[in-house]
Task: inverse folding
């Protein structure tokens, strides 16, 4: 996106990662800093042997730093195509900035990032990285079931907000390039993180069940998709959700008795009997090292990975051979940082972060001498045709974002795609009479999240997980390897603007949708391949799921209580990361093709996108030579910070005290007396005495409600938020007022609430439509491809297309 001018006024992790993504596609990013420097220069882990902060060195790499007064800031706004700001509890100040931008540069896009959004009852609440986890519902579902919830091992929820903001910015920029009209893009962490759940919110809207915490296990629906300790004391993550993988898992682990139990083919039943399964394979695991376990399982096509720390990740051959790390000897002889999440327009490394104010004079001179500006590409996204081949979650999420932005997304499904890979639509699929609203569905039908736990006559159209992730798309049910199917695929490729897939490189090549084959049919097509480890390197052929990548990447080792690690994040967080990056990649590719005519292929490794959320941890670990220790809910920079019990069992409130004024406000707000001498404790003293401070805070939070405590503290400018459950999010007055929860009416489901979009564009509001029925658009799409009704009947007879799963 060369020629794009980005003005970063916000200083947070979310704002900085949003603009870092644009820098990685060639945009010019100018960071406006105060005279004392932006906050990232003063927080987060240090680069070993120096006073430099890893967050600043990573997130501001490849940008320029300016210190501007009022008139020069106005001139910078006139210069900008995109302004990125942030709001921390003061929406009126953001609206005032928006009015200034409209007056100075009507064509500019203004992205405003906040914890809770610019409108709604919680719009004046302040946030922090811990609160971002709590507000979006990920905090409550992460951790051991008998302990307090914990945040992820880094500020990754804030990063997710930044990558979500980048998608909204791109959509608004396309509109500005076509019409000359800018707009406000309102992005909240609460909605961005809530949108990153795979099925939590749908679980509640469809069955009334509250999702819990399960430590090292993948809660409620799948097993094994969990962490296991091996004979050498190291851990592995094993994922076998599908029928084939379960069979291969049983064979590889010498578990013929498990294989013979037909009930265990249902993933939910395996979760209910996880203890039995784990006990059965304990001896097999105990007789092998972690490396041996992974090798044997992968050889049997079962996804598995060792649970690594960041030092081990840094030494991974796969990442070095793909040029993922940038060596930064200017910071430390051993310093490494992740490069951009995918190579784009020849850009792989962003280089160094700027010195404070280093570009102020040259920027002022360039503005004074400016002679016009580059025109933004004029592209109507509604004309762009995307063909999506995807399974699981990351690929479908990318396609869903594109569909919500108005693009024509055709999901190509194999006849066995919906459900047959996990449990199958065998005879006798039924809820039974014992289920009640608010309970988990019976185990044998749980994974698909059926409305009212009822599969119905056409269960393939009633799966809540599928309907959430694939809304707004068309469905073509195609077996491209059947007679006539290859020709249908060729015609689809000929007319497509984009082909998106998240298959393995081997699977894409076998189907004929790898970049080389695509170019032979349509030289101008954009192809985006979202593989687990990348299309090249020794691990390219390894299959993966989000939890597998989470273990491989160091995230599980960094997450946990100080006395207990590793622990999984509550749901497959890496899929949300890959999905947002995939959408950004597609939109950036459309921009690049329109601006330069370039032929674009994106080799997107979901492992690499995930590690881009941990750049400061990679830098700190590589320079120090040791991985970070899990900190639970504490912070390197502020104290006290924690997650505290309330009067209701298993209901919690997260609190961040970020400065001395907030500390005094906390003391004033507490309904119990403070110990003598506490009022003047410094931040360092509070950090040293966190145990006794936490006990004092618990003494009064445990006598009140979570929302009561959070509201009391927020009214005094202390950062706090309940650890929201999936039920809290669905029932939230704040999200209801912001219309985040929406009703979609499906012919096989009826009206049902779904989580909406986190992309709030003022001039071009995002429209969300229901998911398609199985093969719903077969006739329409094939007719557009030139097939007659008779030819379509022939394709149906040959099994090349289908309108229901086989044997259903």
Result:
């Amino acid at each position: 996106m060369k020629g794009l001018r980005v003005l970063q006024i916000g200083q947070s992790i979310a704002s900085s990662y949003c603009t870092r993504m644009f820098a990685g596609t060639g945009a010019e990013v100018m960071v406006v800093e105060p005279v004392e420097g932006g906050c990232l220069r003063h927080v987060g882990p240090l680069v070993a042997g120096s006073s430099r902060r890893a967050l600043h060195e990573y997130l501001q790499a490849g940008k320029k730093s300016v210190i501007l007064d009022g008139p020069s800031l106005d001139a910078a706004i006139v210069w900008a195509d995109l302004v990125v700001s942030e709001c921390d509890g003061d929406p009126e100040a953001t609206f005032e900035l928006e009015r200034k931008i409209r007056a100075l540069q009507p064509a500019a896009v203004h992205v405003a990032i906040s914890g809770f959004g610019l409108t709604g009852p919680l719009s004046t609440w302040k946030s922090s990285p811990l609160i971002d986890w709590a507000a979006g519902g990920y905090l409550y579902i992460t951790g051991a079931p008998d302990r307090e919830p914990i945040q992820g091992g880094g500020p990754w929820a804030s990063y997710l907000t930044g990558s979500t903001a980048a998608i909204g910015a791109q959509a608004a920029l396309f509109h500005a390039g076509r019409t000359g009209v800018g707009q406000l893009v309102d992005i909240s962490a609460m909605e961005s993180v809530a949108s990153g759940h795979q099925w939590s919110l749908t679980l509640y809207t469809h069955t009334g069940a509250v999702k819990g915490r399960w430590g090292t296990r993948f809660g409620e629906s799948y097993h094994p998709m969990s962490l296991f300790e091996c004979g050498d004391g190291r851990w592995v993550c094993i994922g076998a959700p599908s029928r084939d993988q379960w069979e291969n898992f049983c064979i590889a682990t010498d578990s013929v008795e498990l294989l013979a139990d037909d009930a265990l083919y249902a993933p939910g039943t395996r979760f209910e009997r996880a203890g039995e399964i784990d006990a059965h394979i304990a001896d097999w695991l105990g007789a092998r090292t972690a490396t041996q376990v992974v090798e044997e399982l992968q050889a049997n096509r079962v996804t598995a990975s060792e649970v690594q720390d960041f030092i081990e990740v840094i030494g991974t051959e796969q990442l070095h051979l793909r040029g993922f790390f940038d060596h930064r000897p200017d910071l430390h002889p051993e310093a490494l940082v992740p490069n951009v999440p995918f190579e784009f327009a020849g850009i792989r490394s962003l280089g160094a972060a700027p010195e404070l104010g280093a570009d102020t004079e040259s920027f002022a001179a360039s503005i004074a001498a400016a002679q016009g500006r580059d025109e933004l590409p004029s592209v109507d996204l509604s004309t762009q045709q995307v063909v999506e081949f995807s399974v699981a979650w990351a690929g479908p999420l990318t396609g869903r974002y594109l569909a919500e932005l108005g693009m024509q997304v055709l999901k190509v499904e194999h006849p066995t795609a919906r459900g047959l890979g996990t449990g199958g639509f065998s005879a006798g699929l039924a809820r039974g009479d014992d289920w009640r609203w608010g309970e988990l569905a019976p185990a044998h039908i749980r994974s698909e999240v059926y409305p009212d736990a009822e599969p119905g006559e056409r269960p393939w159209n009633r799966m809540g997980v599928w309907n959430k992730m694939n809304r707004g798309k068309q469905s073509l049910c195609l077996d491209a390897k059947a007679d006539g199917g290859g020709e249908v695929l060729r015609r689809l490729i000929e007319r497509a603007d984009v082909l998106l897939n998240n298959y393995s490189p081997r699977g894409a090549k076998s189907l004929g949708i790898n970049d080389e084959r695509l170019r032979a049919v349509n030289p101008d097509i954009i192809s985006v391949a979202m593989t687990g480890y990348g299309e090249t390197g020794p691990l390219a052929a390894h299959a993966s799921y989000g939890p597998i990548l989470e273990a491989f990447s160091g995230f599980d080792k960094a997450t946990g209580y100080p006395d207990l690690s590793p622990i999984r994040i509550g749901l497959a967080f890496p899929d949300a990361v890959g999905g947002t990056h995939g959408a950004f990649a597609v939109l950036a590719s459309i921009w690049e093709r329109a601006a330069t005519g370039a032929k674009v292929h994106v080799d997107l490794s979901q492992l690499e996108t995930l590690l881009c959320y941990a750049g400061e941890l990679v830098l700190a670990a590589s320079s120090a030579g040791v991985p970070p220790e899990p900190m639970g809910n504490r912070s390197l920079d502020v104290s006290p910070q924690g997650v505290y019990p309330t009067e209701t069992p298993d209901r919690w409130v997260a609190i961040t005290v970020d400065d001395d004024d907030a500390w005094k406000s906390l003391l004033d707000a507490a309904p119990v007396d403070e110990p003598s001498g506490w009022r003047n404790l410094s931040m360092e003293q509070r950090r040293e005495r966190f145990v006794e401070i936490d006990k004092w805070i618990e003494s009064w939070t445990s006598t009140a409600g979570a929302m009561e405590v959070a509201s009391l503290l927020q009214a005094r400018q202390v950062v706090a938020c309940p650890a929201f459950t999936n039920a809290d999010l669905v029932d939230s007055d704040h999200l209801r007022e912001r219309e985040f929860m929406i009703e979609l009416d499906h012919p096989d489901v009826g009206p049902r609430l779904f989580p909406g979009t986190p992309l709030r564009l003022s001039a071009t509001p995002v429209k969300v439509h229901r998911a398609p029925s199985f093969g719903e658009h077969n006739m329409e799409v094939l007719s557009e491809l030139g097939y007659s009704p008779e030819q379509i009947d022939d394709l149906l007879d040959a099994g090349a297309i289908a309108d229901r799963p086989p044997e259903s």
Remarks:
- The two ends are 48 Å apart (CA to CA).
- The first strand starts at residue 5 and ends at 8.
